[in-house]
Amino acid sequence: MIIIAITGASGVVYSLKLLKALKKLDMETGVVVSKPAEIIFDYELGIKLDDIKELANHFYEPNDLTSSINSGSFKFDSLVIVPCSMKTLSAIANGYGNNAITRVADVALKERRKIILVPRETPLRSIHLENMLEISREGGIILPAMPGFYHNPENIDDIINFVVGKILDSLNIENDLFKRWE
């Protein structure tokens, strides 16, 4: 199972595209959406939480620290936090598991499971970079929402698909969401 955690940063469209791609590939997914992310889904895309829940096999409440995903004995393969706010990134880097998202990230790191954080912030402060480095040192993958342009994108979807394709690549999931360098 792949857990998709969505935090309150701009760029929730990446999580929407990722969930749709994983559903199309018939991958088992769980989703947890922070309260600020709910607001951003509505603001940026006009989408409600129920629309997101329908794309996943399992839904987890963001403030439920008793949720199964918050235990090391619960089996999941990977965690993707997309987009990942700097607040969430900081909490993870500093071991502060105060909600279901930061706690499942703590579990992923301590159990040495694949964890991918997709920050969408610019510019970055030194502390942001230091927090990313700390997570990277512990085995996490930092995959900023920084699209390439060598695939000659023709529209916004092409740019979004590039980032989502890179997330799928990091999960070792074959995809053709963007034209690869030849």
Automatic annotation (TrEMBL):
The gene is ubiX. NCBIfam families: PRK06029.1 (NF004685), ubiX_pad (TIGR00421). Residues 2-171 form the Flavoprotein domain. It catalyses: dimethylallyl phosphate + FMNH2 = prenylated FMNH2 + phosphate. Keywords: Flavoprotein, FMN, Prenyltransferase, Transferase. Its EC number is 2.5.1.129. One of its GO terms (molecular function) is carboxy-lyase activity. Belongs to the UbiX/PAD1 family. InterPro entries: Flavin_trans-like, Flavoprotein, UbiX-like. The keyword Flavoprotein applies. Dimethylallyl phosphate binds at residues 150, 166. Pfam families: Flavoprotein. Flavin prenyltransferase that catalyzes the synthesis of the prenylated FMN cofactor (prenyl-FMN) for 4-hydroxy-3-polyprenylbenzoic acid decarboxylase UbiD. The prenyltransferase is metal-independent and links a dimethylallyl moiety from dimethylallyl monophosphate (DMAP) to the flavin N5 and C6 atoms of FMN. FMN binds at residues 8-10, 34, 85-88, 120. It comes from Methanobrevibacter arboriphilus JCM 13429 = DSM 1125. HAMAP family: ubiX_pad. This is Flavin prenyltransferase UbiX.
